[in-house]
Known about the structure:
The protein contains seven helices and 17 strands. The protein is an alpha+beta fold. Strand 6 and strand 7 form a beta hairpin.
Amino acid sequence: MEHLFTVAGHTFKLLLPERYPVAEWLAPYMPFREERRVEPLFTLEVKTCATSLLREVRQEMHRFNEEPPYLWMNDTYDTYGLSIIKDCLSSLVRTEAGYVKGSLCLPERNPGYEDMLYFNSCLKLMYVLNTTTLNTLMLHASVVIQAGNGYAFLGKSGTGKSTHSQLWLRYLEGYELLNDDHPIIRLVNDEVIIYGSPWSGKTPCYKNKQARLKAVVRLEQASENKIIRLRGIQAYAAFSPSCSGMRWQREMADTIHQTIVAVTEHCRLLHLKCLPDEEAARLCCQTIHER
C-alpha cells in the first residue's frame, strides 16, 4: 500500500504491507497526507525478515544516542545500514546511496508497539538524512504559536519544555500548541519558518501548520525566574544542541551551521532559568516582545 505525505514542504512515500495496522500506524501522519501527484524526496518500504538476519552485527561507524531504542550507522558494502536495537533485537534499514530508498526489515510476527516504534524512528532518521542539506532542521523542542508567529522552547530531556508550553497555553491568551517534541524549521525566502510534524512525542499534537519563528528560549530549572538575551556565539551554542543532523558528514555539517546562523540572526534567543509557574511564562513572553 502506497502513501504520500508532505512535512514542511518535503514529500516522502511509505510502502506498508496490507496486513499491518495501517490506520493506527499512520494516524499521526494523516494531517500531512499528500493528495497531489508529487515526486517523493525519499521512500521507506516496510518488509518482514527472518530473525537471524535481524540479529546480524556489523562494524559500527557512529552511534546517535545513548538510550533505547539505539540507533547507529554501519558500513554495509555499497550502502549504509541503519540499525535500531532494543532488547537485543535489531531492525535493519538498508538505504541506497543518497538515502532516497530505504527498506525497514521487521520480525516475522504480528506487528506490535515495538514495531511501530522502529517504524517512526526510522522514518524520522530518513527524513533528517534527506532534508538537512535543504536548509531544513528537525528540532527537539516544544512550540507554541499565535497570530502566525512561533515560539520554541529548548532544553535537555526533563527540563520542562512541555510544562512551559502548557503554562503559556493556560495563562496567556491566544496561543496554541504546534508540536511538543520534533517540529521542523526551514529557511524560506530569507525567513525562518517553523512547522508542525507527525512526531510529537507523548503529546498527540500533529498539526499541518506553520508560523514565522520569532523566538527560541533555552530552559533551565532554577529556584527563581530569571531571563537573559543571548547573542553571537552564546546564541549559537544554546540552539545547536537541539538540532538533529549527521555532523560528521561535511555537506550536512555545513548546511546545519548555515541554518543555525540564520536562526540566530532572524530570531530572538533567550536563556530562561525558571520555576514551573505562571510568573515564568509571563516573564518569558514579556521579554520576547520587548522592543
